[in-house]
Amino acid sequence: MVTPSGLVLLTDRRLASGSLLTVVARAVRGGVAWVVLRERDLPYAERRALAVALRDLLPPGRLIVAGPDPLGADAVHLAAADPLPAAVVALVGRSCHDTPRLSIENYVTLSPVYPTRSKPGYGPALPPARAAGIAGGVPWLALGGIDTPARAAECAAAGARGIAVMGAVMRADDPERASRELAMAFGKARAAASVRTR
C-alpha cells in the first residue's frame, strides 16, 4: 500500500492566489506529490468535475478526496467524525488531533503541529515530536502552520511521512517556488533522518 508522503497539498479555492487548477498545476511542478481535494461546500456535480480535472494534473492514484465519497477516485481522507466510505477504496486517511483510533485507515494527519494562519486559535499546537509520539506506528502527515522550510525539516526529523500544507502554497504569489522550497527541505531532512536510523 502506497501512503501519502512528501509534500501533500490541501485545496482551498478561496485562499488560492489564482484559479485553483492553475495554482495546483504550478504546485505540482514545484514538488507537490499528492493533492487532497477539499471544497466540500461545492455542489456534487461541480466537485466531481473538479476531481476529474485535478486527476489530470497528477500521477495516477495521487488525488485524495476529503470525505467518504471518493467522487470516482480511489482514495479518501476523512474528518475525525466522518463515517467510513461505503465504496471500497484503495487508500483511507483520517484527521486526528490525539491518539488515532483506527479501523481500516492507512494513515493519519495530526494537527495542528504549529499555530496556523488558516485557522487562528485552533489548537493547542502539537509540536512535531509530540505528534510522532501520538501517532505511534501509524504513518502520519504533519498538518498545520508548516509555512517555512525550517518547519518542514522539523517535521521530517520527527518522523512524519509527509507534510500537508494549504495556506503556504494556496496563498503564495509563486506556488511553484513555495512548493519547491518546502518539498526540498522536507526531503533533505527525511533523507538525513533515514541515514541516522540505519
From TrEMBL:
Pathways involved: Cofactor biosynthesis; thiamine diphosphate biosynthesis
Keyword Isomerase on entry: no
Alphabetical UniProt keywords: Thiamine biosynthesis
Domain Thiamine phosphate synthase/TenI: 7-169
Keyword match Transferase: no
Highest taxon listed in the record's lineage: Bacteria
A Pfam match: TMP-TENI
Function: Condenses 4-methyl-5-(beta-hydroxyethyl)thiazole monophosphate (THZ-P) and 2-methyl-4-amino-5-hydroxymethyl pyrimidine pyrophosphate (HMP-PP) to form thiamine monophosphate (TMP).
Protein name: Thiamine phosphate synthase
Species this protein is from: Paractinoplanes rhizophilus
